[in-house]
Design goal:
- This protein is an all-alpha fold.
- Helices cover 74% and strands 0% of the residues.
- It has helices at residues 6-23, 34-50, 55-60, 66-77, 85-101, 109-152, 159-175.
- Helix 2 packs parallel to helix 5 (85-101).
- The longest helix has 44 residues, at 109-152.
- Residues 1-8 have low confidence and may be disordered.
Length: 176
């Protein structure tokens, strides 16, 4: 095993322990069953994204070589195709926990920035949509009440209003 600084080694150890605890699989074993292979893939992805270690360092910590780490990273990318969302969710949960609990520096900040801007844009779009809906509803109610006042001198509770409210509901469905 290549010499790794003690501080960095504790990061790899924290990640390994978290994966072992969460997935209940000893990823250092030489066994190739599905749970262990997928558990190692999650470990490799976490180490790659949360530390600045080389693939050799990451692999050697659990007695694997860099080629095995590369293969494990490819395996991780196939989780979505194989509908193995359990491991993706476990990865995301451990990523957030490790990032917060152990103050691990994030190597790949582009992923976080991308997610952050995605959520910011979604929030802006939802606010604009909400604002548009409120404006349309207020305008429609204003029209309804003005027409009722012109026609009847007051706002009656009749079938006419029910038709207008149905029109509003249709508009809302189109916007949604």
């Amino acid at each position: 095993m290549k010499t790794i600084e003690i501080k960095e080694c504790t990061k790899l150890k924290a990640i390994r322990n978290e994966v072992v605890k969460k997935l209940n699989a000893d990823i250092t074993k030489k066994n190739r069953n599905r749970e262990l292979v997928y558990g190692r893939a999650v470990y490799y992805k976490l180490c790659k994204n949360l530390t600045s270690h080389s693939l050799t360092d990451i692999g050697s910590f659990i007695y694997k070589d860099h080629a095995t780490v590369l293969h494990g990273l490819k395996v991780f990318e196939t989780f979505e195709l194989n509908n193995d969302y359990y491991y993706i969710e476990a990865y995301e949960e451990m990523f957030n926990k490790l990032k917060l609990n152990y103050a691990i520096n994030i190597k790949n900040s582009k992923d976080l920035k991308t997610k952050y801007y995605k959520y910011v844009n979604e929030n802006i779009n939802l606010k604009e949509r909400n604002k548009s809906i409120r404006v349309l509803i207020k305008r429609e109610f204003k029209d309804i009440f003005n027409e009722c006042r012109k026609e009847f001198g007051y706002v009656p509770q009749t079938a006419y209003l029910k038709q207008r409210f149905a029109k509003i509901n249709e508009m809302l469905k189109k916007i949604s």
